């Protein structure tokens, strides 16, 4: 699954660089449907596109995402939503020895409930403040997202 996401994000970067925002938006909607985490790239996309282009990007990528969700919900019902999106808010992960939260998690529901906040803040900050091309900014965001993840293996 990760290789599919890599191809979709690389293709999205290619079309963003070619200023084919509509194609990039559809690819982004598909990528977020496939795995939810590419949503971390939204701040970087928002500050690098013009207001009009970003609105079009947002509408088209959200529409792509929603059409796919509706299609698979029609096929599989609530089981699809549970497996694809909702399990993230309900799962209890065991400790992972490379995680920055290794000693803190140890059964504490409070830490695990809010562990995503540093991850979200750092990734968003890098997306808003980093300069350079699309690929280096997305790389920085991804590294921050992975390095501060409570499930790091």
From TrEMBL:
Any Pfam family the entry gives: Mannosyl_trans
Membrane spanning stretches: 21-42, 54-73, 133-152
Keyword field contains Isomerase: no
Keyword Membrane attributed: yes
Pathway the protein takes part in: Glycolipid biosynthesis; glycosylphosphatidylinositol-anchor biosynthesis
Localization, UniProt: Endoplasmic reticulum membrane
Keywords, in A-Z order: Endoplasmic reticulum, Glycosyltransferase, GPI-anchor biosynthesis, Membrane, Transferase, Transmembrane, Transmembrane helix
Entry's EC annotation: 2.4.1.-
PANTHER family associated with the record: GPI MANNOSYLTRANSFERASE 1, PIG-M MANNOSYLTRANSFERASE
Record-stated family: Belongs to the PIGM family.
Protein name in the entry: GPI mannosyltransferase 1
